[in-house]
Amino acid sequence: MTSSPPSLSCVLFLTLALILIAISPALTTSRKTPDDLHDQLMKTGIKITLNNIDSHGKFTKFERLHRAMNRGRSRLQKFSEIVAGKNPNISSAVHPGNNEFLMKLSIGTPPISYYAVMDTGSDLIWIQCRPCQQCFPQPTPSYDPNNSSSFSTLSCYSSLCKALQGSCDNGCLFFYYYFVDSSLFEGSLGNETFTFGNASVPNIGFGCIEDVVAGNGLNQPAAVVGLGRGPLSLVSQLGEPKFSYCLTSINETKPSTLLMGSQASVNFSSEFSKTTPLIQNPKIPTFYYVSLQGITIGGTNLPINQTTFALNANGTGGLIIDSGTSMTYLVESAFALVKNEFIFQLKLPVVEQSNSTGPDLCFELPSGVSTVEIPSLVFHFQDADLDLPTENYMITNSSTGVMCLAMGVSSSDLSIFGNIQQQNFLVVYDLLEETVSFMPTECDKF
What we know:
Blueprint: H1 8-29, H2 34-44, E1 46-52, H3 61-83, E2 92-94, E3 101-107, E4 112-119, E5 126-128, E6 152-153, H4 159-164, E7 167-168, E8 172-178, E9 183-196, E10 199-214, E11 223-226, H5 234-238, E12 242-246, E13 256-260, E14 274-279, E15 289-290, E16 292-297, E17 300-301, E18 319-321, E19 328-330, H6 332-346, E20 362-364, E21 377-381, E22 384-388, E23 394-397, E24 402-405, E25 407-409, E26 415-417, H7 419-422, E27 425-430, E28 435-440
Parallel strand pairs: 2-8, 4-11, 5-10, 18-26, 19-25
Antiparallel strand pairs: 1-3, 1-13, 3-4, 3-9, 5-11, 6-9, 7-8, 8-9, 9-10, 12-13, 12-27, 14-15, 14-28, 15-18, 16-17, 16-21, 20-24, 21-22, 23-24, 27-28
């Protein structure tokens, strides 16, 4: 018995199937992997809008200065405690998040919007998560990982868990001590898609805070994005060695800008910038230390001892550059020289400070005089003499006839170069070259 030949339709079907099989490998290899998406994202770059934490309040510039100073003094104290090793004997410690700038971001799929603190003084990215046994109040609902299709738990064997010194129990669990109000947090590490503006970044490791074990956390944000030098920070996880920010004046309510990837130095010019090396502190690898070698006021080079701002072998001392601290705080011996020199050169009546929360040095402006000649201020960093605009260190309240120096005295041997001194500079961090650069920029037009 002979079989009948296949029909024309069967032949066509088999031929089409063979063609699809032949070309299917080529189709699958064209799909973009997470690494491809990451590389494309870094080439495009990320631009994030930053808002000062007081920008939506009806505060005068002096009220904003006082509020920023209160946060700054608290942050300085906590930084000093970290450097001195005064942290509880627990897995790890959260660095200060009492900060100045908020960024809007979205987490998960579908994305849910939150406001988070931008913090160059910490590493971990974290947010309060559901279910939360006891969490502090926040204006938005806590993040719920069960509602996101892109969430996954991080293994306790992952590099980020090891960096956090987490423990193993159905994932990576950790305890964190938050210095700002002595809150102890408990949480777990997860992996999620974060969206900044129009840029979605997959596979970002973050801390899911599930319980406030101690403290009330009333002064804390709902989320923090750490931009420090450690492996847990957003900078390290993106694997992009450059990031930058451009901070608008404390007198303005206009937003500032954070730039990552190719955007970080797109408007940067070495011809108009000053660059100084970053210093690594092995004891506190998160912080960005720089070498301050001297200060000049109105042409007078202050007789500051060369060891005043030195980073000591035990990790104490030194000067860090920080976006989250409002004013520059100098160790007592250096600030005394700065204070006395401004008093000597300005020759204006000094306002007695009965309120300890106010600036450390204020002057009474002469009546009937519209302008006062203010001495120049130059910070001599290693390889970079940074001549500051007057508004970056002297703030005037014309309604009360008072002018104050936007600098203060440190209560420890740690000094901080604050964000008021950095305003209207494009500040570029290059972790490959281990440098930080300052380029004068109108940040409100950035």
